[in-house]
Every structure is written in C-alpha cells, then in structure tokens.
Amino acid sequence: MQGAQMIVLGKASDGRVEREFEDLANMHNEGPSIRILLMYSEELSHMLYAAADMVLVPSIYEPCGLAQMIGMRYGAIPIVRKTGGLADTVFDLDDQSHAEIANGFTFEGIDEGSLSWALNRAFTHYREKPNEWDDVLRKNMKIDNSWNKTAGQYVDVYKSIRVRWQ
Q: Going from the N-terminus, what domains does the chain have, and what CATH number goes with each?
C-alpha cells in the first residue's frame, strides 16, 4: 500500500460478512500496515478520523454518507466510490471541470483496479503536492454540511415554488 497504514473499524450485522471480515483480520493483523477492528466504538471512530490523512468509503450503495463528511470535518481527505450521497459531497481533485469544489478522490467501478486507481492518485497527490493537499484539507474542514445549511436551502426551494404558483 505504498507505505500507508490502514485501520478498518466496524461491525457487520450479517454473520457471513462478519466471518469474511474476521478472516481478513486474521490474515492482515500480523503486520503493521493494516489493522481491522471488528467492533463498534463511537469514541474510537472520532479518534481515528482525527488521526487520519484520508478516509476511504468504497460503498456500493450509499444513500447519504456521513463518514466522508465527518472525515472532512476532521481534516481527512475522502476517497469514495461515486454513488449516492458520496457523489453529492465529494468531487474529484483531478476533474478540472469542478476544480473550485474539488475536495477528494472518486472512482466508479466496483473492482480492485478502480479502488487502486483512486488510492494511487491520492497517495501520489499526498506525496508530491503537500501544499495543495493542505489547502484542500483546510477547505474541507470549513465545508458546512450541517442541517442548518440544508434546511435553509429547502426553505429557499419552497419559497421559489410558492412564488411560481401564486
């Protein structure tokens, strides 16, 4: 993983998935690069977000996506599969058409190659463009994803509809 360290924290509700994660944990917990913790801990999750340089959310389906928003708030650059709420909140740094809102790395496939492509781009950016990386993480920490902002946007939409129908 190009010198990276990864921590996976989570609990699966499906017994089959839980066994797969346990097998993965047993395979990879021997070395210092990957640590898999099959547990739920709100406190530990916040400490991990605060310590992370990147947050990986490779969801196949994600209606909202809080992990990337929490990660950004703590200063971790998101690497996400472009789906649902992840696609609504993370814009690829290599996409020049959205340069002003670019805040992370995205990929579309559900295969290892697509994920590796996004990780390689993120690691390269981290190593070769440290000043730009710092600018992006500072910008991300200021993004307002709160309900206050969202509620205000809904109010604006309702007002515009009301005006059109009067």
A: 41-165 (3.40.50.2000)
- Which residues, 6+ apart, have CB-to-CB distance to 80 below 8 Å? 56, 57, 58, 59, 62, 65, 68, 86, 87, 90, 104, 105, 106, 107
d(CA 87, CA 79): 11
Cα–Cα nearest to 54, from 9, 11, 7: 7
What angle separates helix 112-128 from helix 130-142, to the nearest 10 degrees? 110
pTM for this predicted structure = 0.82
Name residue, tokens 């999750």: 45
Render pLDDT for 6-62 as a digit per residue (tens, 0 to 9): 888 887 777 777 777 777 666 655 556 778 888 889 999 999 999 999 999 999 888
**Per-residue buried b or exposed e for 124-144, using 16+ beta carbons within 10 Å of the residue's own CB:** ebbeeeeeebeebbeebeeee
Structure tokens at 121: 């781009």
Those residues whose C-beta lies under 8 Å from the C-beta of residue 136, and which sit 6 or more positions away, are 77, 93, 102, 103, 104
Distance CA 77, CA 54 (A): 5
Place of tokens 């605060």: 50
| Residues 129/156, Cβ–Cβ less than 8 Å | no
